[in-house]
Amino acid sequence: MGSKSDLKIMSAAAELLRQFNVPYDITLVSPHRTPHRMVEYAESARKRGLRVLIAGGGGAAHLPGMVAAFTTLPVIGVPINSSLSIQGLDSILSMIQMPAGTPVATVGLDNAANAAILAIQILALNNARLNDALEKHRNTLKDRVMRTIEELRKGGFQDDV
């Protein structure tokens, strides 16, 4: 995260990673206030055993792109609608408009949970336990929708499915 204020959004990623028993590191790395720390964090990530990085950025949302410039690990950007942001548009654009060769996979505004799911999907490519857990998660989501449809039908609502 670029600042402490991002924690309210980024904690959703931490919670999902915890639910999937994926170890993670959560810290502050500001590209403007601690640029040397940001470079060191990104350059040493692989050596420290990290495999995917999730970086949130609000007002001046340079963190995901700058981290991507200093590592070959996949970087997932979470645009954050902060008090300094232009309704999140500046954050979104700074992540999706990366130059060729320095990608940042970007999820929806304030959607750190999807960033965690994407990171887990990447890790699950070589991890059967995570792949099984993702399948169970998807089935849970599907079952929740099906229960809602059934509840709506009982109340007289008919869907077009």
Number of helices: 6
Bulk shape = globular
Low-confidence stretches: none
Average pLDDT score: 93
Order of strands, widest sheet: 1-2-3
Measure the end-to-end span: 42 Å
Share of residues in helices:
40-55%
Report on the biggest sheet: 3 strands, parallel
The proportion of residues in beta strands is 5-15%
Order of helices and strands: HHEHEHEHH
Radius of gyration: 18 Å
The count of DSSP E runs of length 2 or more, i.e. the number of strands, is: 3
Class based on secondary structure composition and strand pairing? mainly alpha
Would you write up a description of this structure?
- The protein is mainly alpha-helical and 161 residues long.
- It contains six helices and three strands.
- It has helices spanning 7-19, 35-44, 63-69, 89-96, 112-124, 128-154, and strands spanning 53-57, 75-79, 105-106.
- Strands 1-2-3 form a three-stranded parallel β-sheet, sandwiched between helices.
- Strand 2 (75-79), helix 4 (89-96) and strand 3 form a beta-alpha-beta unit.
- The longest helix has 27 residues, at 128-154.
- The model has no long low-confidence stretch (mean pLDDT 93).
Which helices and strands appear, and what pairs or packs with what?
Blueprint: H1 7-19, H2 35-44, E1 53-57, H3 63-69, E2 75-79, H4 89-96, E3 105-106, H5 112-124, H6 128-154
Parallel strand pairs: 1-2, 2-3
Helix pairs in contact: 1-5, 2-3, 5-6
List the main descriptive attributes of the protein structure presented here.
161 residues, mainly alpha, 3-stranded parallel β-sheet, 6 helices, globular, 3 strands
